[in-house]
Design goal:
The structure holds 2 protein chains of 2 kinds.
Chain A (H helix, E strand, L loop, with lengths): L1 H18 L1 H4 L5 H4 L2 E4 L5 E4 L6 E3 L2 H9 L6 E3 L24 H6 L4 E5 L4 H9 L4 E4 L4 H14 L3 H21 L7 E6 L5 E2 L6 H8 L2 E3 L10 E2 L1 H7 L3 E4 L8 H13 L7 H5 L2 E3 L2 H5 L5 H12 L12
Parallel strand pairs in A: 3-4, 3-5, 5-6, 7-9, 7-11, 11-12
Antiparallel strand pairs in A: 1-2, 8-10
Chain B lengths: L9 H21 L7 H13 L7 H35 L11 H15 L10 H20 L7 H25 L2 H11 L8 H20 L1 H7 L3 H6 L4 H23 L5 H13 L3 H25 L7 H19 L7
Helix pairs in contact in B: 1-2, 1-13, 2-3, 3-8, 3-11, 3-12, 3-13, 4-5, 4-6, 4-7, 4-11, 5-6, 5-11, 8-11, 12-13, 12-14, 13-14
Classes of the chains: A alpha/beta, B mainly alpha.
């Protein structure tokens, strides 16, 4: 059901971007663009009278995109999970992804809510009814992230900046792909949880794309769902050479990281894999890895560098 | 027709169950994504028992560290839940009773959620969630018993009502903790609440086996008192049963059994409710044969459900979903076919 909805909205996205090009190519001048009628990634239509100045972001990925477009000052409030860039924490919060407070949002008098698919539709509809335009983003692939950035740029009349960002992201992704081109054999990689249930990043996620881009093979590529739960047996058979943990573990200290690695190497299942025998467990920042925003490029560089340190120089990533 | 068919005898039922269990074990050993068949699996088991087996080999790992402990735990969990269900239904003289009635599942759920919320969990999954779940199950069961106590007695109706009330309270706290925690925790708790045998370690098998064995022997010993309790508490008392004491002991042991099972497997629904009914429809209400047959029947049901859970969906499915989806229709089918029923 969800999958089908996803496919439908992906189709809508494709149709939309086709019909959206005049604004994107800058044919219309910024001032004559408004009032602008836009359909969001979920197919809901809104009308904007002017470039939004008082926005509320309901997801960390949206916040990161808007800030990367230089729009931090135009953000009024964010969700309680928005923590990047660090300065954003000074903004008021309106609740979580699911439990945002409608009354608080309305009382702040925003002129645009930037939502994601994960926000409950019913609540977003309520906001629409109360006269607040809602624009929902759905970005599940790398292309989708770039598209979301460009479309938000058009919406907020910062097209040029959005295009520059998208171009530089694309260039950095291409650089990663070029650096690892032709590695043989490609390493077998698992990105997910190291304890049961073994939730893994499966096909159709941008994490899966990042693995491929970094010149590796995702051992969960054959799964039928986007976030499958692998069986212990599958993990043993697929025998990953490198394991990336992209979840909130207590990895704050070096000793906690080491403890986790020792546990990992002694684990009856993981010790049966090449990654477990060699201790090839790396902890990624889940915020960087899982948020469909500008920092996925950092994640791509980090993954590639950890997989093939000889090929991907340390200078390439920011961190 | 009633009771006359040779198929209805406990011996025939036991024979059938043994065949079922053997077939399920063979399937469980010989099927899986690693493509190791039954023959090879048995060979590896033989080598592990009598020969020198290189445990670092993938095939050996698959058989010894993945398939075998999982099969064993499915058997133990199923038997524990079914046995606990038999006793609970007997003590409560109520067809709706199951091991979870006195707060075992809700307490375990609250314990497990607390462990996840506080981030107390080790990679092996042996400490943390199971310990908290076990403690939660026992604490809430005990609270239910104490709160149901009234003027020297613990009326069955009180137990039922207090159990329902405290269960709801625990659910409220579980929902609150989930609400306060980040989204990745929610998925994990959901997975646990649906029951799962995916991360089984031998340690857990070792922990559960003695509790089942002791519990079974103990409950079997008290089987006759359970039969007498079925006549009614006053009648049982007049026949020399120390009613309140017997009830307390039986509920405590049954709750312990269920708590031990739930703490390692998560909440596997309907096994403790249905298996006793199914077996009772088959061999009648006497508790000793009932216990002897319910334990392997529960084991077979959970084993079958887990086989389906790990092979049908292409992704690990929580086993509790399967026990419910296949168990309930089967139970309804049996119930509709039977005109008179012992409890009604």
């Amino acid at each position: 059901m969800r999958k089908r909805l996803g496919m439908v909205s992906a189709f809508v996205c494709i149709v939309l971007t086709g019909g959206f090009s005049p604004a994107e190519t800058g044919e219309a001048t910024v001032s004559s663009r408004y009032p602008m009628t836009v359909q969001d990634d979920l197919g809901y239509e809104i009308v904007l009278d002017h470039a939004p100045q008082r926005m509320i972001s309901l997801a960390p990925s949206n916040t990161e995109i808007l800030c990367a477009l230089g729009l931090e000052e135009r953000i009024l409030a964010v969700s309680r999970f928005c923590n990047y860039p660090p300065s954003i924490r000074q903004k008021p919060t309106v609740g979580g992804i699911v439990d945002f407070n409608i009354e608080k949002i309305v009382s702040l008098e925003p002129d645009l809510i930037v939502a994601v698919r994960g926000n409950p539709r019913q609540r977003l509809n309520r906001l629409q009814q109360l006269g607040v335009p809602v624009y929902a983003v759905e970005a599940e692939t790398l292309e989708g992230i770039l598209r979301a950035i460009k479309r938000l740029g058009v919406l907020c009349a910062v097209d040029e900046r959005a295009r520059t960002l998208a171009v530089s992201m694309r260039a950095r992704l291409a650089a990663v792909a070029a650096a690892v081109q032709g590695v043989t054999p490609a390493k077998r990689v698992y990105i997910g949880d190291v304890k049961t249930p073994y939730y893994a990043a499966g096909p159709g996620t941008f994490v899966d794309e990042l693995i491929a881009l970094a010149g590796a093979v995702n051992i969960a590529r054959g799964a039928r769902t986007r976030w499958p739960i692998l069986s212990a047996e599958q993990i043993l058979v697929e025998n990953p050479e490198v394991v990336f943990l992209g979840l909130n573990y207590d990895e704050s200290t070096e000793s906690a990281r080491n403890r986790l690695k020792i546990q990992f190497m002694k684990d009856p299942i993981w010790s049966g894999t090449t990654a477990g025998r060699k201790g090839e467990l790396y902890i990624l920042d889940p915020d960087v890895l899982h948020r469909p925003g500008p920092r996925v490029v950092d994640a791509a560089e980090t993954i590639a560098r950890l997989l093939y340190p000889d090929r991907v120089a340390l200078t390439e990533g920011k961190n | 027709m009633k009771g006359s068919s040779p198929l209805r005898s406990p011996v025939a039922a036991a024979g059938l169950l043994v065949v079922c269990l053997a077939a399920l074990l063979a399937l469980g050993l010989g099927v899986g994504p690693a493509g190791i068949g039954l023959g090879q699996a048995l060979e590896i088991i033989g080598e592990g028992l009598w020969g020198d087996l290189d445990l670092s080999e993938t095939a050996a790992k698959v058989v010894w560290q993945v398939r075998l402990p999982r099969l064993m735990l499915a058997l133990l969990v199923g038997a524990s839940l079914a046995l606990s269900g038999v006793v609970m239904q007997g003590v409560f003289r109520n067809p709706m009773a199951d091991p979870f009635l006195v707060g075992v599942s809700s307490g375990a759920a609250l314990g497990a959620t607390t462990a996840v919320f506080l981030g107390i969990q080790s990679l092996s999954g042996v400490l943390g969630v199971p310990v908290f779940a076990f403690a939660g199950a026992l604490a809430v069961s005990f609270a239910v018993y104490v709160l149901a106590y009234q003027a020297g007695r613990v009326p069955v109706l009180n137990l039922l009502l207090v159990g329902i009330a405290l269960g709801a309270l625990c659910q409220g706290f579980v929902a609150l903790l989930l609400h306060l925690s980040p989204s990745t925790d929610v998925q994990q708790v959901f997975f646990w609440l649906m029951g799962n045998l995916a991360g089984v370690r031998w340690v857990q098998v070792g922990n559960l086996a003695p509790s089942l064995l002791l519990g079974f022997v103990f409950l079997f010993w008290w089987g006759r008192d359970l039969d007498l309790l079925l006549l009614g508490e006053d009648e049982a008392a007049s026949l020399g049963v120390r009613v309140e004491w017997t009830k307390a002991v039986l509920i405590a042991v049954a709750a312990l059994l269920a708590a031990a099972a739930v703490s390692v497997s998560g909440v596997i629904g309907f096994v403790g409710l249905m298996v006793p009914h199914i077996v009772r429809l088959w061999v009648g209400p006497k508790h000793r044969p009932l216990m002897l047959l319910a334990a392997p029947a529960g084991a077979a049901l959970v084993l079958a459900a887990d086989l389906a859970a790990r092979s049908l969906a292409g992704s690990e499915l929580p086993v509790g979903i399967v026990t419910t989806l296949i168990g309930v229709p089967f139970f309804l089918f049996l119930l509709r076919r039977k005109r008179t029923y012992f409890f009604s």
